[in-house]
Amino acid sequence: MTDVQLTASVVLYHSPADMVARHLQSVAKSFAHFSNVYPTASLRFFFVDNSVDEHYLRTIETLISQCHLPEGMRLELIKSSENKGYGDAHNQALEKVPSEQYVGKEDRAKDTRFHVVLNPDVYLAEDTLLLSYKCISKQQDIALISPRILDNYEAVPHVAKRYPGLRILMGRYLKSTLWAEQQQRYVYAEQDPESAFDVEMAGGCFYFCRLSALQDINGFDRAYFLYFEDFDLCERLRANSWRLRYEPTVCIQHEGGGVSGKTLRHQWYFICSAARFYSRYGWRF
Fold first, then answer.
1. How far apart are CA 238 and CA 199, in angstroms?
2. What is the pTM of this model?
3. Confidence band of 241 (pLDDT split at 50, 70, 90)
4. Which residues contact 56 (CB under 8 A, 6 or more apart)?
5. Domain spans, the chain
6. Quick one: CATH architecture of 5-281?
7. Residues 10 and 118 sit within 8 Å (Cβ to Cβ)
8. What is the rounded CA–CA span in Å between residue 201 and residue 186?
9. Mutual orientation of helices 54-65 and 17-37 as an angle, nearest 10°?
10. CB atoms within 10 A of CB 273
11. Which of the residues 5, 22, 59, 229 could staple to 224 if both were Cys, CB 3.0 to 4.6 A apart?
12. What is the pLDDT of residues 5-45, one digit of tens each?
């Protein structure tokens, strides 16, 4: 029997407690389904609290203490001393995974350690973890699985991404029909969303990752406080000869929204991160 070791991390920043509870329940249910097939599997689940708020921390501690977990799953709460950003928080969880678990590229076939990157407003289907594992296990050069995303239980089309030119970002921010052809190409509109295919990039609300791939690139780049840390991760994975795979059989529900509806502070984070990303990988119009 394969001894699959899963870890997962979710970053909290004053996230509503009822949302966090629902998120955790979905993960627990999905892992219970996973462990029915792989009884020796384990899931070490990290909450990383970036709120720097003792009252909120106690709320999450209470939530955790009241949660019923399936056998093989355990929770750990990491309290950030200061909010250094989304990627830094996920890296704090990754650093809790012993370095000796690393599996090099020459021995990927024996790799049974995987890490799930999550947002707190993501809810897993019962078979999300199991199908993710089965998909990533098929080919040893796949670093991560990106799922089909459901918004209010309706499929969001074309969630996979290509490298975003500046006109793409402007068009999407303004919700404009300008550069329609380029925008369609950006989201792989020519691909059948019912079929699996390799992608250049994928949004980071849910990644089912090969742990060795994340360790290969030292996780997220802490230079990004918020936004573009997921695209940067994808670029570095592909630069290290890893593949990224969109898999429509893997489904999640996501309640997130676009940056155009965010506060001015979030829009400023977006601009700063975009400038950093393009300065590193190239300004394309």
1. 10
2. 0.92
3. very high
4. 12, 14, 49
5. 5-281
6. Alpha-Beta Complex (3.90)
7. yes
8. 10
9. 40
10. 21
11. 229
12. 999 999 999 999 999 999 999 999 999 999 999 999 999 99
What's phi and psi for 92, nearest 5 deg? -60, -40
Structure tokens at 214: 């994340």
Mean of the per-residue pLDDT values of the chain: 90
Q: Report the C-alpha gap between 41 and 31 in whole angstroms.
A: 9
Proportion of the chain in helix, strand, coil states, percent, rounded to 5: 40, 25, 35
Q: Please, what's the b/e burial string for 173-191 (b: 16 or more CB within 10 A of its CB; e: otherwise)? A: eeeeeebeeebeebbbeee
Q: Note whether 169 and 161 are within 8 A (CB).
A: no
Q: Can you give the three-state secondary structure of 42-87, one letter per residue?
A: EEEEEEEECCCCHHHHHHHHHHHHCCCCCCCEEEEEEECCCCCCHH
Query: In angstroms, rounded to a whole number, what is the distance separating the alpha carbons of residues 98 and 112?
Result: 14
DSSP bridge pairs for 47: 10, 77
Which residue reads 């050069």 in tokens? 141
Contact 72, 37 (CB under 8 A): no
Cα separation values, 12 from 2, 6, 102, Å: 32, 20, 27
Give the number of other CB atoms < 10 A from CB of residue 208: 27
- Residues 85 and 91: their CA atoms lie apart, in Å, by 10
Please name the residue that has the structure tokens 């609290």. 49
**For the chain, first and last CA: distance in Å?**
51
CA distance 34 to 98: 23
Residues 51-72 have pLDDT tens digits of 999 999 999 999 999 999 999 9
Sequence-distant (≥ 6) Cβ neighbours of residue 101 within 8 angstroms: 5, 113, 211, 215
User: For 131-165, what is each residue's pLDDT tens digit?
Assistant: 999 999 999 999 999 999 987 655 665 678 999 88
Kindly state the tokens that stand for 222.
């802490």
Please provide the size of the chain in residues: 285
